């Protein structure tokens, strides 16, 4: 048996662009991805804190240090520029691993720049 646990969360970023003409996905500043340990093309969930919309898509790395968070294609229908979103990644693991696993939480500040990187410890 495997469990699905939160791997990483990029907490409270602002959408900087919504491009419905693109084929799909979310483009995220590569610095944010590295901080969270999220890989190119990895599946993520996006929770919109303004509208309540929740969607699943995949990641495309954006320009480092740009603060870009661009909703692409159909994902652009779930968020507007300026909306606050949370980006979550999950991982499957054995229950024994889950006992000691700690997800990464990336906090941001103005312009989606990294404020701190923490491990959940509850």
UniProtKB/TrEMBL annotation:
Enzyme Commission no: 4.1.1.11
Cofactor, how bound (note): Binds 1 pyruvoyl group covalently per subunit.
PTM section of the record: Is synthesized initially as an inactive proenzyme, which is activated by self-cleavage at a specific serine bond to produce a beta-subunit with a hydroxyl group at its C-terminus and an alpha-subunit with a pyruvoyl group at its N-terminus.
Pathway(s) where this gene product acts: Cofactor biosynthesis; (R)-pantothenate biosynthesis; beta-alanine from L-aspartate: step 1/1
Enzyme class: lyase
Highest taxon of the lineage: Bacteria
Subcellular location: Cytoplasm
Catalytic activity from the UniProt record: L-aspartate + H(+) = beta-alanine + CO2
InterPro entries xrefs: Asp_de-COase-like_dom_sf (IPR009010), Asp_decarbox (IPR003190)
PTM-bearing positions, type Pyruvic acid (Ser): 25
Residue positions of the active site: 25 (schiff-base intermediate with substrate), 58 (proton donor)
Keywords tagged on the record: Autocatalytic cleavage, Cytoplasm, Decarboxylase, Lyase, Pantothenate biosynthesis, Pyruvate, Schiff base, Zymogen
Cofactor dependency: pyruvate
GO molecular function: aspartate 1-decarboxylase activity
Positions that bind substrate: 57, 73-75
Quaternary context: Heterooctamer of four alpha and four beta subunits.
Function of the molecule: Catalyzes the pyruvoyl-dependent decarboxylation of aspartate to produce beta-alanine.
Record-stated family: Belongs to the PanD family.
PANTHER family reported in the protein's UniProt record: ASPARTATE 1-DECARBOXYLASE (PTHR21012)
NCBIfam families xrefs: panD (TIGR00223)
Name of the protein in its database record: Aspartate 1-decarboxylase
Source organism of the structure: Sphingobacterium faecale
